[in-house]
Amino acid sequence: MTRKQLPTFSNRFEAVDALRGLAMVWMTVFHFCFDLNHFGFWSQDFYRDIFWTGQRTLILSLFLFCAGLGQAIALAQGQSWSRFGRRWAQIAACALLVSAGSWLMYPQSFIYFGVLHGIALMLVVVRLTAHWGAWLWVAGALAIAIKFIYAYANEPPATSHFVEILNAPLLNWLGLVTRNPVTEDYVPLLPWLGVMWWGVAAGGWLTSQRPLLLTRPMPAPLKPLVGLGRWSLIYYMLHQPVLIGALMAVSWAMK
Known about the structure:
Radius of gyration: 19 Å
Order of helices and strands: HHHHHHHHHH
Largest sheet: none
Shape: globular
Distance between the termini: 68 Å
């Protein structure tokens, strides 16, 4: 079957942007609830309650899947390494800003390998492995499975020197840990690379077999999600400072 040519990389695809926008809205609601808890307006256990931990998993999975879709589309449109590098540098710079900002607010549990840190590393990996094609489905499944196999093999949590090395900050970004690090956000390579690989695999199939599903415009009610998805990085960086600032003002006014 002849591969259908997609529009150039300067064009956007509303379906993907809307899906990314949905992830951003869901994330905002989650973070607003988290901030309400942090400022004492609401008491919830965001670290152990499956209602909240499950939502975090789903939101992050959707976000990383969209990142994989976007990378597959960029490659299908012939995105150069230099253009990839410029976008990657923006993400990496924002990751450093997140670390700095979280250190000011949570010095004992600042974010050193969160969503943007993980995405920056995973984007390089998927860029180098995108040519695996359908094998990305298998690679993704293995990346996810390895995380749980390792955890199962080390129950009850082992205390060997090797295990402790993998638990240490120098290597816990791999995800092969027996205890989660003390940090406000933690998105290691495993199992999350598997989700992004699945996004690349799905994007590769769509761009080669069903490109019309990508280019179809979204209905008017979904246009706000499309716009939000197009500016996701800027929105991601600004939404928490705005939410936290607003709640700090409310907290101060109530004193």
